[in-house]
Amino acid sequence: MTVKVLVPTALQKFTSDRATIECDGNSIAELLDALEATCPGVKARLCDESGQLRRFLNFYVNDEDIRFLDGTNTQLKDGDQVSIVPAVAGG
């Protein structure tokens, strides 16, 4: 099963400057492992020391925020698009 991952500019140094990566995974958790296998070092930027997604990153599956789905257990299907969006703050 192939899922398209949209990578923010700040993380593209781990993806050989690619804005889009295709990976396999039945859930967000599996997708994170697949991303790490393809792009070593990226998972440490996405997850904290306990393995939880970092608070300043938002993940969307087909425009749906995974916080309102099933978090990292959110199921994926062939052709889904996962967007990694850094939180924006300021004033």
TrEMBL record:
Lineage, highest ranks first: Bacteria, Bacillati, Cyanobacteriota, Cyanophyceae, Gomontiellales
This protein is called MoaD family protein
Q: Which organism is it from?
A: Chamaesiphon minutus (strain ATCC 27169 / PCC 6605)
